Amino acid sequence: MSCPYFKDYTRECWEKIGELPVDTFYFCDSEKYIDCPFYIKIEKTKNICKNVDNCEAFKFFKSINFDEFLKITTIFCLSDNSINCKRYILKDSGKEVPLDLHPDGSKIEENI
After folding, report:
1. pTM of this structure
2. Where are the domains of the chain?
3. Which residues of 61-99 are buried (b: 16+ CB within 10 A; e: fewer)?
4. pLDDT digits over 6-40, tens only?
């Protein structure tokens, strides 16, 4: 079984997500699609951070190594743990969120 957004070898989720990492294809044509962060975000199959649609970091993470993106989104963006995200905490308290702030509080390396 493959992802319902994967039709005729075209990833139709592209229209809803925008940029997709190259190394995500193995999710599309297998049952693993239910664990794909993009599928989860579109279908809201898990609890999702209320800020994910406007989170600059989530957009940035799409361009890094997919395994790293998967780890970050699983721990923070697409889980109940999103309330512990340092970006979420700052935004929720009305403070400015630095673009280079990682959800765990570390800084995002520019050369990723």
Report:
1. 0.79
2. 6-92
3. bbeeebeebbebbeebbbbeebeebbbbeebeeeeebee
4. 988 888 888 887 777 767 788 888 899 999 888 99
